[in-house]
Amino acid sequence: MKFMNKIKTNWSLTTKFLVTLVFIIMIEFIVVMFVWRSAIIYTKSNLPGFNPEKFTWTFSKYIDIEDNKPVLNDEGKNELVKNKAWIQIIDESFKEIYSFKKPQEVPKVYTPIKMAHIYKYDIANYSIFISEKEYDNESFAYIIGFPTWRIAKHTVIFNPTALRNFFGGGFIVLLAVNVTIAVIASYFIFGKRMGRPLETIINSINELSRGHYETNHMEQGVYKNVFANLNNLGKTLKENKNKREEMEKVRENWISSISHDVKTPLSSIKGYAEIMKDSDYTFSQDEILDYSKIIYDKSSYIQGLVEDLNFTYKLKNRTIPLKKENVNVVILIQNIIVEILNHPLYSNRNINLYFERENINILTDKNLFRRAISNLIFNAIIHNPQEVRVDVSVYKKDRVHILIKDNGRGISQNDLKYIFERYYRGTNTNVSVEGSGLGMAISKQIIDVQGGSINVESTLGKGTNIDIVL
């Protein structure tokens, strides 16, 4: 089957090549014949340019009769000079009676056979054309000669019977043999040489469609660019496949983590609820309040996870309306830092704010922007040791920059690739933190939807820099 497909491909290429070749030859033949007839062969009425026969036939109008003898007028002399020609007028006895610009080699007296000879061939490197001038029942023949480098005549001698026999039999056989040789030669020279790389290309595309992305073709020949593109396509598809597999693992780990984060508070809720519904046990008011608070806190945590997940998908699909306003970003970040430091768990943290001037305004959705900056600062705090230093700088060049820098543990290059993915939690932390793993993804999405950009650089053991440009 594979062999038959190869033959079919080669034959298809050969057929298309031959059809195209024949068509081109036919078009070229027609064009060449037209040009050849128009530019080379002189006929009675075909040319827009100079026609020596027509010129000779009509030249008698320049011959006048004076004292019963033909002479050339001035206009005729000018025409001959312009066309680098000469003229000789002879009487009925083939003797010269007038000439103009005639070469010395041209005789003054002719015999009938000599006259026929010079008309068939040439004389003194001039091509001869003959016509006549009639006057009062007399006839004068005149000969006009054109240089052979400008006008040439050739006599073709052939056997019509032999020609008919050739086209009737031998020509057809010869044509059939030539066509057969052309087809066979085209198949092996064109079809196989062009078909072999095409077969490789088709097989490579089939392999790619089946998920086999290991393509490594030699980038050479007519299809050099095609093979280069196939290699690049295979490489890209393989990278995308590996990325999908990695993201699938990340997604599975995220689902496992979320399931664990939901399962733990649900177990607490269920446990305390079962205790409280036990009719054999009487609870004090303080116990009821304590148990209710635990159930409420755990429920709120689960609700936060669900809301974060729903929020990030709304951001991705841009279904959240933006309420942009003119905001002083320095004051906004200052208030965020104050709120964090007022929290009992983070009151002793080292967070610093630097700015070049107190009033740097941006057009943004204040609540969304607050959430994005809070997430980024909290990440720098909770995933690093308590003694970590977090510096927040705000400055304006052509655009507004917010730089969040810490000297903490840093992020590995492998984690850095997925830092903004919805399903990813970093590995370089020994802190067990309740959360959805969506904080960084939400921050990036908020910055993106407002036309900004965010870039993260990090080195293990040295810390992390987050640059926000608005």
Automatic annotation (TrEMBL):
GO terms for MF: phosphoprotein phosphatase activity; phosphorelay sensor kinase activity
EC numbers: 2.7.13.3
Highest taxon of the lineage: Bacteria
Localization per record: Membrane
Record SUPFAM superfamilies: ATPase domain of HSP90 chaperone/DNA topoisomerase II/histidine kinase (SSF55874), Homodimeric domain of signal transducing histidine kinase (SSF47384)
EC class (word): transferase
Protein name (database record): histidine kinase
Organism annotation: Clostridium kluyveri (strain ATCC 8527 / DSM 555 / NBRC 12016 / NCIMB 10680 / K1)
